[in-house]
Amino acid sequence: MRTDLPGTPADSEALRTFIANGLERARKRTHALTECDEEDLLKQHSPLMSPLVWDLAHVGSQEELWLVRDVGKMEPLRCDIDQMYDAFQHPRSRRTSLPLLSPEESRKYIAEVRDKALDILERTPLEGSPLVERGFAFGMIIQHEQQHDETMLATHQLRIGTPVLHGKPLAASVLPRDLNALPKEVLVPAGPFTMGTSVEPWALDNERPAHTVDVPGFWIDTVPVTNGAYRCFIDDGGYRDPRWWTGKGWDHCREAGLVAPKYWERDGGGWARTRFGVVEPVPDDEPVQHVCWFEADAYARWAGRRLPTEAEWEKAARHDPASGRSRRYPWGDEDPAPHHANLGGAALRPAPAGSFPAGASPLGVRQLIGDVWEWVASDFRPHPGFTAFPYPEYSEVFFGSDYKVLRGGSWAVDPAACRGTFRNWDYPIRRQIFAGFRTARDATLAEER
Question: Residue 446 is inside which H or E element, if any?
Answer without folding.
Answer: helix 445-448
